[in-house]
Specification:
two-stranded antiparallel sheet; globular
Length: 311
């Protein structure tokens, strides 16, 4: 699994203040922590930054590279001038060691962003979102990928291995009925495209608006389900040690603990397009019971409430 660290994000109050204060030491340390925790790339979400974008990105890339060296960076902003500054600073041997996050299928973004990725040899995150917004069904998301995003990448000469389709994770709090659709969209994209593009998601979106103490469990359970259908990459919190351990258990097929064994049974069930049988779970074990209940809300079998674990 290709891990893109999410922690340098403008919505974080600490990140926002440190950016305003130009606190370079903060970003050096945060970048270093994510790399040491297992991130393969770092997402730099600076927000729109309509005026100061290029200057902010130039400064931030210097800070991050001081902390981690020539690591792959993901430029997460709508400011194309800022993205291009980042691409130039990470260019090696004619190619940028970078990811552009992101284009959508909206006409203006689709016109301007893919050529930039192709010109710099960068990877490109492409969202299955059109002008009308995010489609709710897996079929509609796959259609955008197949009819707009992949053809546009081919048109501008972007190699398929540099394209990361993002079928858009929605939150279980408010959009619960659409949460399983993203799983199926990943499965379908990997099946119908030849050759298939890489598929990436912003994992933490699934637990937006959920009480903070409940978010990690939802995130790691959903991650297992997405891995089961062929997910290649995820923007996530590498500092969440339990999440990283679950990813390791799935990749190494480590069933040496009851929780690990249950996650692997979940992985196998989702991969086969089946529901997890409650039989293998010891529901008297609080941790296994929490996983079982979380699977039910993620599959929209039980209505999500903030108290679902107590039901």
């Amino acid at each position: 699994m290709y891990i893109i660290g999410e922690n340098i994000h403008i919505l974080s109050p600490k990140v926002k203040q440190s950016l305003a204060d130009r606190d370079g030491a903060f970003f050096v340390q945060l970048a270093r922590k994510q790399k040491e925790a297992g991130a393969h790339a770092l997402d730099l979400n600076i927000g729109p930054q309509k005026k100061a974008g290029p200057e902010v990105m130039d400064w931030l890339v210097d800070c991050v590279q001081e902390g981690v060296g020539p690591m792959t960076l993901s430029f997460d902003t709508t400011n194309l001038a800022a993205i291009e500054v980042g691409l130039k600073k990470t260019r090696q041997d004619g190619h940028a060691n970078a990811i552009i996050n992101s284009t959508s299928a909206e006409e203006e973004r689709l016109e301007k962003v893919p050529p930039l990725a192709a010109a710099y040899g960068a990877k490109l995150v492409a969202l299955t979102m059109a002008k009308e917004g995010i489609p709710v069904s897996a079929d509609a998301r796959v259609a955008i990928a197949m009819e707009k995003l992949i053809p546009r990448a081919q048109e501008v000469g972007l190699p398929i291995e540099n394209l990361l389709i993002d079928p858009l994770v929605l939150t279980v709090s408010g959009c619960q009925e659409y949460v399983p659709q993203c799983i199926e969209a990943v499965r379908m994209i990997k099946m119908v495209a030849d050759p298939p593009p890489l598929v990436s998601v912003g994992l933490s979106n699934v637990s937006n608006q959920v009480p903070p103490q409940m978010r990690p469990l939802i995130n790691r359970t959903y991650m297992v389900m997405l891995m089961a259908v062929g997910l290649d990459a995820a923007i996530l919190d590498p500092l969440d040690q339990e999440l990283m351990e679950v990813i390791r258990m799935v990749e190494q097929r480590d069933a040496s603990t009851p929780v690990g064994a249950l996650y692997l049974k979940l992985y196998a069930a989702v991969a086969a397009g089946e529901e997890l049988d409650p039989g293998p779970a010891d529901l008297n074990d609080p941790k296994q019971a929490e996983i079982w209940k979380t699977v039910q809300i993620l599959l929209n079998k039980v209505i999500y409430t903030d108290s679902y674990l107590r039901l």
